[in-house]
Structure prediction request, 236 residues.
Amino acid sequence: MSGGGPVVFTREGFVRGLRASPALVMAGVPFGIIAGLTAQAHGLSLAEASLMSFFTFAGSAQLLALGAWTTPVSFATVNLTSLTVNLRFLLMGPLLAPWLDHLRGWRRWLSLFFMIDHNWALALKEIEAGRRDAAFLIGSGLPIWVAWVALTMVGHLLASSVAAPLGHPVYFAALAVFIALLVPMWRGRADLAPWLVAAAVAFGVSRLLPHTSWHIVSGAIAGGLCGALRDAWTRR
Prediction:
């Protein structure tokens, strides 16, 4: 469907989303397995790890939250870490307003639940192409969610068999993925200052407050403020 017609929510749009999802599911395989491995290493049961993925469905936030997991758990730290990394959705969500503004009730809330970085990008392309079927977002997100929960369980079961302790090289896989994701985000030398500030603050806080996740929050806030100041200076 293209053009300027009304926004619809149909089975055809849902199926179109399903057909676009296999590549996205494959991209999430290492994330899901590492989430399960990390959850088991921090003492979460299979049920707890599965329910975390079932209700949260946020790969980067879950991995960072698990990285901040302590015994006893500091819920304030874990929640603040998750909130910081998910603040990007405040900027991403409004770009889907041409669809979301026309949805009501469960359709809107379920669409938001299934929205992650990957199918958000596909949905944005659908909107830019003039397509008006908002069911695409749920159709593309549902298989990823199912796979995410299943892969978390697989990772947890593997960890139970392998029994790799925290600090084992296998846990570096998640960090390696995050580092790799930085490459396409680089927009040029203008990004250098915020990135360096974020890295320096995160490193400093990690030394001052070891065994906590405050370095993640501090680095994100410092880098964001530096970027905002850079943009304000550029506009002047």
The chain has two domains: 11-183, 186-236. The CA atoms of residues 61 and 85 lie 6 Å apart. The mean pLDDT is 84. Residues 11-183 form one domain.
